[in-house]
Write a structure and sequence with these properties.
Number of domains: 2
Strand order of the largest sheet: 2-1-3
Largest sheet: 3 strands, antiparallel
CATH architecture of the largest domain: 3-Layer(aba) Sandwich
Shape: globular
Protein name: G domain-containing protein
CATH class of the largest domain: Alpha Beta
InterPro entries: P-loop_NTPase
Order of helices and strands: HEEEHEHEHHEHHHHHHHHHH
Bound molecules: guanosine-5'-diphosphate, magnesium ion
Strand content: 5-15%
Number of helices: 15
Radius of gyration: 24 Å
CATH topology of the largest domain: Rossmann fold
């Protein structure tokens, strides 16, 4: 929740690794279609109904509710949020329960920092077991304000750049965070996020921010069961990614092409192919693709053994999918070329690679056709059967 323009949608998209808008469902689970969507610019801004469920196709395990912002004096909205929180906190069924509240508080306009309604929330809203995580958004603006100040004090440009962030953080702690922490129901965790809106060139930043947000949320969750639930949701999402990726048919289509040309993904086609595997895993987007594609890709085809070209393609598609799954499940922050290299070695040394090759050989013949739904299903089954390789080097 948070005011209009606080950066809510930007965060949700980052968490779900999605560049598309979420799908919206009403209380009864009926999809609200785009034409009538509350998300369209034509509709009044800020009329979000907190009861509506937002889901992203890339991450269907997470369900979000977007509150209307509390503008100054918007007690009515605060009451609505309070009612929603109270009802959902005591909800018995786990998929209707509210598990955490992300409260976005924009910091880009110091004159409008922490409205009365926002402070009021921390004073008056007892959320019980549901933790509130305060997310101070657009902190990059707050940093640049500190930078300007430092410059005003005649600090050298580079020095000012270096010190801006610390200065901003200190100033924020002293003036604003304190004020929040003095309220009756302060947030359980807080984090400051920056540059979430810049998609290009900020992948690392976004990735780190999402990790921090999810870690803090997990820490703030009340019970181990809930922490586990969060982890499970993330795991299920990986399986959904795998399924979507394979069912999209690009692997079997490439196998068909290899059958017709007699050639295994020549030149750039192979890079593109590996890229296509990777893009199905939002978690990996930010860290893996450039690293891997730049460095290691050329070594991969050597793993294909003596398979004929179309089966090489299927094998490479299956293996790369399994690696992506392992890397997603492992989720240890940043993944570099080294991790990937080790993963590959382990994949071969543990015999997993040989088993996948054998399965491909057994399930697929040399004559095709490969680009059919049945073949997709077969490939998917091989992947899911072999995805739990003990492959965490
Ligand atoms: N400077 C800056 N701008 C941001 C950041 N996150 C979001 N924005 C911008 O703030 C505006 C509102 O973001 P949006 O996510 O739509 O806010 P919502 O109304 O709360 O859903 C958009 O123009 C974003 O590009 C950030 O971290 N820094
Ligand atoms: Mg929004």
């Amino acid at each position: 929740m948070g005011r209009a323009n606080a950066g809510k949608t930007t965060i949700l998209k980052a968490v779900c690794g999605s560049r598309e808008a979420p799908q919206v469902y009403n209380q009864r689970g009926r999809r609200i279609m785009a034409k009538k969507s509350i998300l369209l610019p034509t509709s009044l801004r800020g009329i979000h109904n907190i009861e509506h469920e937002l889901r992203f196709r890339s991450n269907p395990g997470f369900v979000f509710h977007d509150s209307r912002g509390f503008e100054a004096g918007a007690t009515e909205e605060l009451e609505k949020v309070r009612e929603f929180i109270n009802n959902r906190a005591i909800e018995r069924s786990v998929d209707k329960q509210l598990h955490a509240i992300w409260f976005c508080l924009p910091t880009d306009n110091e004159a409008r920092m922490l409205t009365t309604a926002e402070l009021d929330f921390f004073e008056r809203c007892d959320t019980g077991k549901v933790p509130v995580i305060a997310i101070f958004t657009k902190f990059d603006s707050f940093d640049s304000y500190a930078f300007q100040q430092l410059r005003g004090e005649e600090v050298d440009f580079f020095e000012a750049r270096k010190r801006a962030r610390d200065r901003a953080n200190e100033h924020f702690d002293r003036v604003y965070l304190n004020r929040i922490l003095q309220q009756r129901y302060p947030p359980k965790k807080e984090l400051r996020i920056r540059n979430m809106h810049e998609v290009d060139g900020h992948d690392e930043v976004i990735k780190r921010t999402v990790t921090e947000l999810l870690e803090k949320t997990s820490d703030a969750l009340d019970t181990d069961a809930l922490k586990l639930l969060l982890a499970t949701v993330q795991n299920n999402n990986v399986e959904i990614c795998i399924t979507n990726s394979i069912n999209s048919g690009f692997v079997t289509a490439a196998a068909q092409e290899a059958l017709e040309s007699g050639d295994f993904l020549p030149g750039k086609k192979f890079d593109q192919f590996i890229w296509n595997v990777g893009v199905s895993y939002p978690y990996l987007w930010t860290q893996l693709l450039d690293n891997i594609i730049a460095g290691i890709v050329t070594a991969l085809p050597t793993l294909n053994g003596d398979l004929p070209p179309p089966l090489q393609v299927l094998h490479m598609g299956a293996s790369a999918t399994i690696w992506c799954g392992v890397l997603c499940w492992k989720r240890t922050g940043s993944i570099g070329a080294d991790d990937f290299q080790r993963l590959l070695e382990h994949y071969e040394d543990s015999g997993a690679g040989a088993r996948v090759r054998a399965a491909i050989r057994e399930e697929f013949d040399d004559v095709g056709p490969y680009d059919t739904m049945e073949q997709n299903a077969k490939l998917l089954r091989i992947i899911l059967d072999h995805k739990d390789i003990d492959c965490i080097p």
